[in-house]
Amino acid sequence: MLKRHFVRLAAAALALVVGFAALPAAASSRIKDIVDIEGVRENQLIGYGLVVGLQGTGDSLNNTPFTRQSLQAMLERLGVNVRDSTMRTANIAAVMVTAHLPPFGTQGARIDVSVSALGDSKSLQGGTLLVTPLLGADGEVYAIAQGPLAIGGFSAEGDGASVTRGVPTSGRIASGAVIEREIPFKLASMSTVRLSLRNPDFTTARRIAMAVNELLGQPVAEPTDPSTVRLTLPPKFNGNIVDLLTDIEQLIVEPDLPAKVVIDESTGIIVIGQEVRVSTVAVAQGNLTVLVTEDPQVSQPEPFSDGQTVVTPRTQVDVQDGVEQKLAVVKAGVTLRELVDGLNALGLGPRDLISILQAIKAAGALQAEIEVM
Predict the structure, then answer these.
(1) Which InterPro entries match (predicted)?
(2) Tens digit of each residue's pLDDT (9 = 90 or more) over 295-336
(3) Which residues contact 359 (CB under 8 A, 6 or more apart)?
(4) Domain boundaries, the chain
């Protein structure tokens, strides 16, 4: 029976190895998917505003003085003096408004905005954002946001129960901001431009340069460091770098990956790169587990007797020392699939695998970098 079980396991492992061997060794990508172009980037915008029209789910003005001050300032700008008045409205909330200014965003174009409650508001459902300037890192206003909110969650409560789904204190306004200021950047007039690799690597940078030079038939691309490839505009493109970028962004290259093991201790997630290799090493794992179970029994006296009802404790202690765990040998130069199969054969969970990988690295048998998140 045991022999038949091991034969089935070996057959399944062999099928997995053959299946993965049929797949391509590495995935190729377009240049536009693995690099960023110098100057073509988003810019973050932020603003502070007020949401009105809430159904009693807004900020408590007594607990959020910034909401009270903002409401007073807004009403005074509209010609209403409320400095000495007592305001107890719960239909208004102070919010932070964020947005991304896209590259080459033109004046008058619209962008989406995100709205998040700043005070003790319970829900922004049904609210409308008032005119809110959105500022960049330089303090200048680049967009103006306003409009009704779309909330992805809701909250309801009664005297004895409440229910909340999603996050009712945040929402979005599709096309809720108008761009008022453009960021000047004249890409078409540049004679050189840099490509920035999203995952810096010497080999990948060189492969990108070789692919571009092979397409154009002249050395216009040069890798200057692991994260940068510099392009020089050839004369045949008539001084327009956009034409050059359009031609090369569809080129296919094969990114090179470092040997790395990424571990997230908090969630038990392990990601092992394709190039990870190990030297010959023997691995064993065993845990001492002590399980204590309480099963109290109630002892009652016979009817019409003078006895008392008592609880009799019963404790069961079970000790598991992991003696059934065997020593496994992981051979040198195994592939990623074989390494995973070898570790899975030990019957280990993610937590134990994390400890084993770190121990193999400490022994000098893991030819990879371990990154703990």
Answers:
(1) Flag_FlgI
(2) 667 677 777 666 677 767 665 655 455 555 555 565 666 666
(3) 283
(4) 43-153+165-179, 187-253, 260-299+308-372
Q: For residue 235, give the DSSP letter.
A: G
Q: Is 335 left (phi over 0), alpha (psi -120 to 50) or beta?
A: beta
How many other C-beta atoms lie within 10 A of the C-beta of residue 297? 9
| Torsion sign (Cα): 115, 119, 120, 126 | negative
Cβ-contact 216, 209 below 8 angstroms: no
CB atoms within 10 A of CB 113: 27
At residue 263's C-alpha, the angle toward residues 260 and 264, to 5°, is 150
227-238: pLDDT as tens digits: 999 999 998 888
Please name the amino acid found at residue 305: S
In angstroms, the CA 101 to CA 116 distance is 18
Read off the tokens for 253. Answer: 């290259």
Neighbours of 112 (CB within 10 A): 13
Q: Which residue's entry shows tokens 């973050």?
A: 44
**H or E element in which residue 241 lies:** helix 241-248
DSSP bridge partners of 310: 299
Beta-bridge mates of residue 330: 281
3-class DSSP assignment, residue 11: helix
Q: Copy the structure tokens of residue 280.
A: 């010959």
Q: Which helix (H) or strand (E) holds 41?
A: none
Q: Give the pLDDT confidence of 176-205 residue by residue, as tens digits.
A: 999 999 988 888 888 899 999 999 999 999
